[in-house]
Amino acid sequence: MNHDVPDLHDDEIHIWRLPWGSDAAGAPPFQALLAAYAGPRAPEVARGEHGKPHFPGAFGALGFSWSHSRDTALFAVGRGPLGFELGVDVERVRPRARSLELARRFFASAETAWLEALAPEDVLGGFLGLWTAKEAVLKAQGGGLSYGLHRVAFGNVAGHLVPDLFEGPVAPAASWQVHTLDLGEDLFAAVAWRGERRSVRVFTFPL
Predict the structure, then answer these.
(1) How far apart are CA 125 and CA 96, in angstroms?
(2) Is 50 exceeded by the pLDDT of residue 98?
(3) How many CA within 13 A on the CB side of residue 96?
(4) CATH number of residue 29's parent domain
(5) In the prediction, which pLDDT does 23 show?
(6) In this predicted model, what pLDDT tens digit does every residue of 138-161 receive, in sequence order?
(7) pLDDT reported for residue 44
(8) What total of structural domains would you count in the chain?
(9) What is the pTM of this model?
(10) Which domain holds residue 114?
(11) For the chain, what is the largest distance between any 2 Cα atoms, rounded to a whole number of angstroms?
């Protein structure tokens, strides 16, 4: 791999789309991309209480996250204050007959009501949009699914999901940016970070 990556400015989030095979997360090319952004002096990646990877010390200003679904993976990276919270999630479209059942069990009641009001052919897209947005936030915060999907609730404004009511350490919702990624009809994806708005740049690996 070419270890040169585009300059990462403080007002940007970089997203890399990569092919996914049998390699485990953290192995190349994730590892090579992370090393290229962090530089040769970066310490070993540490793990938080719930397994979230991060750099310790001063290198903790570089936030990163990865996700994969079937043959596609995403790697997200950005710089911010120490402990910069950044998360990404991707899901490939496949039939999910139990989408509404899962929403009733795990989502906030207002989100479930919104899904129930959709036309049947739109339910799966609505479900996956909510799922990836929630997962991106929970990956950024580090609590994962055990935190509770219902505690990260989104509203729908003119067809766009917006943070609405976040509970616990992830609150307040207004402190978060959640950006839907347009990767094609077969994929739903979202990136989330705590802080001010930034531009999101998407690259395909390799450049």
Answers:
(1) 10
(2) yes
(3) 18
(4) 3.90.470.20
(5) 52
(6) 999 998 889 999 999 999 998 899
(7) 93
(8) 1
(9) 0.93
(10) 12-204
(11) 53
Residue 70 three-state SS: coil
Q: Is 72 helix (H, G, I), strand (E, B) or coil?
A: strand
Q: For residues 138 and 87, is the Cβ–Cβ distance under 8 A?
A: yes
DSSP 77-131: EEE-STT--EEEEEEE----TTHHHHHHHHS-HHHHHHHHTS-HHHHHHHHHHHH
CA 14 to each of CA 11, 58, 63, 191: distance values in angstroms, whole numbers, following the listed order:
10, 20, 11, 10
Long-range contacts: 93-101, Cβ < 8 Å, 24+? 93/124, 93/128, 93/185, 93/186, 93/187, 93/188, 95/124, 96/124, 96/127, 96/128, 99/123, 99/124, 99/127, 100/127
Q: What is the 3-state secondary structure (H, E, C) of 150-184?
A: HHEEEEEECCEEEEEEECHHHCCHHHEEEEEECCC
